[in-house]
Amino acid sequence: MPHDHSHDDPHALLPSDPALRVKALETLLTRKGLIDPAALDEIIDTYENRIGPRNGARVVARAWLDPAFRAALLEDATAVVSDLGFYGRQGEHMVAVENTEAQHNMVVCTLCSCYPWPLLGIPPGWYKSDAYRARVVREPRKVLADFGVTLPSETAVRVWDSTAEVRYLVIPQRPAGTEGMGEEALMALISRDSMIGTALASAP
Amino acid sequence: MTRVHDMGGRYGDGTITPEPEDEVFHTDWHARALAVTLAAGSLGKWNIDVSRHARECLAPTDYARFSYYEKWISGLANLLVETGVVTREELAGQGDPAPSPLADKKMTADQVAGVLAKGGPADRPSNTAPQFDVGDVVVTRKIAANALVDGGHTRLPVYAAGARGRVLRLHGTHVLPDSSAHRLGDAAEPLYAVVFPASELWSHPEHPRDEVVLDLWQSYLEPEA
């Protein structure tokens, strides 16, 4: 039943220019009554403006501030982020992993592009690139160097390859000098990349 | 036995270019491709495993030359024809498209928020009891192939085949993609996070204590010999 294709693949019937290819498919499906262009606008608006990495940053900031929240997040992240309204497509089974002096966590999907959408939005281009997918499991430090990050020599790296429907959120280490800062101020230090593991949280 | 998407550990891909956080879609057609794919998925003619397999089955030459969203839209076009939702003639733009009997399943704008919030959980009840406990040493299948369908979908990457690791956690029982991708049923079974020393996977690991964790189904694993 696996269907192997060649040059007579159905997709080859569409225009070769990708923008025209998408337009042709959208037009066809709309004319057949199968998609609503207004629904497409709504999907795009959701991921451009409403669901993105600020959701994840709020979770991390709260974990830094509240030990009970942090413990609950590490115990059952799905339940905790659901309570904040961050449940949904591509985030049905969440696990949070915490960086320490001894261990730095990084997340990838070598087989496709699995990513925690409700917490981080649509993955960046580099996360979906062949280079990241191919390299990070074998040479995480060289990948970190591409992002300008150098880990202490005593820190081990644990790379999480998202091969199932479980999605991983990295809790970066809280930077020194952030004592007394509130949730919103801390959120500004927590980048998307720091929650994938290709960056550290910023210093204040 | 392997397909082009299974690239973990491959050499030769070059540097990675970071990008700013506020750049969600690089061009309009990327956004459109994502939205069309999501909206077509809601017609209910395939599941996530079927759609992943459709992308993986693109010819290696196409997979390598296509950008990310071109893979999506091309996999989608193939799926639409295979499931009979559109015809080859319609895809080629020949004649007037026929109205679809699936039109009543069309996702409307007011349904989008609910559909995205609902998601599609993959955990299911299973009669297969967990065979392993946290801390157990396990060995993955020697050959990273689908045991049910020759050349079929699997989520054991080649780089982790025949490797010895340790069970880190049990995620519960989840749909088995090797079955689900071929419409053979959910076949849910225990799913584990298994941690492997980098030295078990790579000839020149960067650091003696580095590790890689994969989520692996029970049937991918055997007890340590």
Automatic annotation (TrEMBL), chain A:
Gene Ontology molecular function terms on file: nitrile hydratase activity; transition metal ion binding
Signal peptide location: none
Keywords recorded for this protein, A-Z: Iron, Lyase, Metal-binding
SUPFAM superfamilies per record: Nitrile hydratase alpha chain
Gene3D superfamilies xrefs: Nitrile hydratase alpha /Thiocyanate hydrolase gamma (3.90.330.10)
Pfam short name (any one): NHase_alpha
EC number(s) stated in the UniProt entry for this protein: 4.2.1.84
UniProt KW Electron transport keyword: no
Catalytically driven reaction(s): an aliphatic primary amide = an aliphatic nitrile + H2O
Residue sites binding Fe(3+) per the record: C109, C112, S113, C114
Protein family according to the UniProt entry: Belongs to the nitrile hydratase subunit alpha family.
Name used for this protein in its record: nitrile hydratase
Species the sequence originates in: Sulfitobacter mediterraneus
From TrEMBL, chain B:
Annotated GO MF terms: nitrile hydratase activity; transition metal ion binding
The entry's keywords: Lyase
Keyword match Mitochondrion: no
Domain of life according to the entry: Bacteria
NCBIfam families assigned: nitrile_beta
Entry similarity comment: Belongs to the nitrile hydratase subunit beta family.
Protein name: Nitrile hydratase subunit beta
Organism: Sulfitobacter mediterraneus
